[in-house]
Automatic annotation (TrEMBL):
SUPFAM superfamilies: P-loop containing nucleoside triphosphate hydrolases (SSF52540). The gene is cmk. Gene3D superfamilies: P-loop containing nucleotide triphosphate hydrolases. Belongs to the cytidylate kinase family. Type 1 subfamily. It is found in: Cytoplasm. GO terms for biological process: pyrimidine nucleotide metabolic process. Residues 6-54, 60-199 form the Cytidylate kinase domain. InterPro entries: Cytidylate_kin, Cytidylate_kinase_dom, P-loop_NTPase. Its main location: cytoplasm. It catalyses: CMP + ATP = CDP + ADP; dCMP + ATP = dCDP + ADP. This is Cytidylate kinase. GO terms for cellular component: cytoplasm. Its EC number is 2.7.4.25.
Length: 202
C-alpha cells in the first residue's frame, strides 16, 4: 500500500529543511533531503568523476558526508542538476522513499511537480533572496566558513537562476501547492502552518 507523502519544494535557504525535519518529527514520517543526492553527485564531480556515472552508482553512505554542506558543493550540485540523465538516475530512489509505509516527507526543488505529483500535501516554502542570503550567511559563519554576505547573496541568486531557468524539472510551485513565505515568519510559525495544512489533509 502506498504511504502518505508530503512534498516540500522551494529555493535555497528558504527554511524547507527546518520545516521538513519538524514536520517529519511531528507526524513520525521518514524524511529525505533530496538536495543531498545532488550534492553527493556534485562532490564526486569536484573530485573528478563523470556526473552521470556518479548519479548511477550513488549509495546511501554517500549522503552521510558532512562536507556536502559547503558552498562549492552546492554550486556543483546545481550544475549537475541540469543534466537530464543525472536527474533520471535519481528518480527511483526518491519514489521508493516516498512510498514507504508510515509516511514520508521529501524536500527539494521538483518533488511536487515531477517526483511525487500525487503527493497528498504539497508545500512551496519561499522567502526573499536577501532574507535567505542573511540566513545562509549566519549558518556558514557559525560553521567558520568566512564568505561575505555579498558573496552568499550572489551564490543564492546564481543558484536560483540556474534552478528556475533549467529545461529539466525547473524550480516552480506545483499548481496545487500551498505557499509558505518565511520572510516574515518565525520558524515556529512556519512549522505551525505546515502542520495545520497536513493535519487537514490526513
Ligand atoms: O537543497 P539543496 O540546496 O541542498 O540543493 C542543492 C542543489 O541541488 C540545488 O541548488 C538544486 O540545483 C539541486 N536540487 C535539484 N532538485 C532537488 C533537490 C536539489 O535540482 N529535488
Amino acid at each position: 500500500t502506498e504511504g502518505f507523502t508530503v512534498a516540500i519544494d522551494g529555493p535555497a535557504a528558504a527554511g524547507k529543511g527546518t520545516v521538513s525535519k519538524a514536520v517529519a518529527a511531528h507526524f513520525g514520517f521518514a524524511h529525505l533531503d533530496t538536495g543531498l543526492l545532488y550534492r553527493a553527485v556534485g562532490a564526486k564531480v569536484l573530485a573528478g568523476a563523470d556526473p552521470v556515472d556518479a548519479a548511477r552508482t550513488l549509495i546511501p553512505d554517500d549522503l552521510e558526508n558532512d562536507s556536502l554542506r559547503t558552498p562549492e558543493v552546492a554550486q556543483s550540485a546545481s550544475r549537475v542538476a541540469v543534466i537530464a540523465e543525472v536527474r533520471a538516475a535519481l528518480v527511483d530512489f526518491q519514489r521508493s522513499f516516498a512510498a514507504r509505509a508510515g509516511g514520508a516527507v521529501l524536500d527539494g526543488r521538483d518533488i511536487g511537480t515531477v517526483i511525487c505529483p500525487d503527493a497528498q500535501v504539497k508545500l512551496f516554502v519561499t522567502a526573499s533572496p536577501e532574507v535567505r542570503a542573511q540566513r545562509r550567511f549566519a549558518e556558514l559563519s557559525g560553521k567558520g566558513i568566512g564568505d561575505s554576505y555579498d558573496r552568499v547573496l550572489a551564490d543564492v541568486r546564481a543558484r536560483d537562476a540556474r534552478d528556475m531557468e533549467r529545461a529539466e524539472a525547473p524550480l516552480r510551485p506545483a499548481a496545487d501547492a500551498h505557499m509558505i513565505d518565511t520572510s516574515t515568519l518565525t520558524i515556529d510559525a512556519a512549522v505551525a502552518q505546515a502542520v495545520a495544512l497536513i493535519t487537514k489533509a490526513r
